[in-house]
Every structure is written in C-alpha cells, then in structure tokens.
Amino acid sequence: MQIPLQITFRGIPPSEAVEAKIREKVSKLDKFHSHIMACRVVVEAEHQRHHQGNQYHIRIDITTPRKELVISREHHDKQAYEDVYVAIRDAFNAAIRQLEDYARIQRGQVKTHDLESTGTITRLLPEKDHGFIAAMDGREIYFHRNSVAGNGFDSLKVDDEIRYIEESDDLGPQASIVYP
C-alpha cells in the first residue's frame, strides 16, 4: 500500500487487540488485488436501548488505481455482531469477495449473464473518458472508460458491436461493464 492503513474507532475506545486483528486482515488483502493504494477501516459501536451489549458496524474503504471499493457490514440485529471480531471477519470476507470480483473484471474474466444486452457504439468522447451505446430498444446508454473490459476504451470505434450490463443511475441508464 502506498498510503498507510488508517484505523478509526467511533463510540468505543481504541483497542490494540482489535487494531492488531485489522492489521492482520489488511495484510492479506494484497493476495487478492496487488494494486491496493490505500485502506481505511472504521470500527463503530452503536449503543442500543433494550439490548444487551453493543452492536458493531465495520466500514472498509479500499482505494485502487481505478476504483474505490466500500464495504460496510452493519448489524441489522444479528447477535453475531455483538462480537467485534466476528464483525471484522465478516467485513473482510466481503472485502475479499469484492476485490476478487473487481480483479476478474479488470482481467476481462467475467462470466456472461442473462442480464447482458447488445448494442452499438454511437459516440465516443475520449477527451471526456466516456461514450454512448445505442441499445436494441432505441435508448442511448452512457458508459465510462473504466467500465470497458478486455482491450479497453482506446480500442473502441463508432459502430462497434458490444455487449454490456446495464444499471440505473440518478442520471439515467449506464453500462457498468462493456465487453468489446
């Protein structure tokens, strides 16, 4: 990691044992993605009325060169999260799954799903790092440079046939993954 690990405690006093467990878990993340630039971990205890003990919330922010991953493990009344170590374990297990998925996408090793659609590149704006896809139903779908798998954004040309996975955004439809 280029930036040192940051650990923050909220609602509980700092604990050397908890910090040591977090450092151990963070040291293993490099096995799943070799380009982690920074990692921030927040351990938060929420005091609940009519409940025994604290409920723990763990948030992990991982920064890679192209994406920031946010992993948040909230309690939702699960008794297991009365134990901070169980909450940490589950949060880091989720972080590993997200890093593995992200690494597969970066390598272009993503399975084909029924949610994939096909379309044609209609506009490319390399200076703005995005482009647009004409969907089969006539809609225009936005995509960003970072969502292109395989050979990458620079290999795309107008009128190229592509496959993509669509998701909704506040600004309209966008392709979360584009396969040239």
UniProtKB/TrEMBL annotation:
Q: Which SUPFAM superfamilies match?
A: Nucleic acid-binding proteins (SSF50249), Ribosome binding protein Y (YfiA homologue) (SSF69754)
Looking up InterPro entries in the UniProt record yields: CSP_DNA-bd, NA-bd_OB-fold, RHF-like, RHF/RaiA
According to the UniProt entry, its GO molecular function terms are: nucleic acid binding
Annotated ranges, domain CSD? 116-180
- Residues that span the membrane, as ranges: none
**Protein name in UniProt:** HPF/RaiA family ribosome-associated protein
Organism from which the protein derives: Candidatus Methylobacter titanis
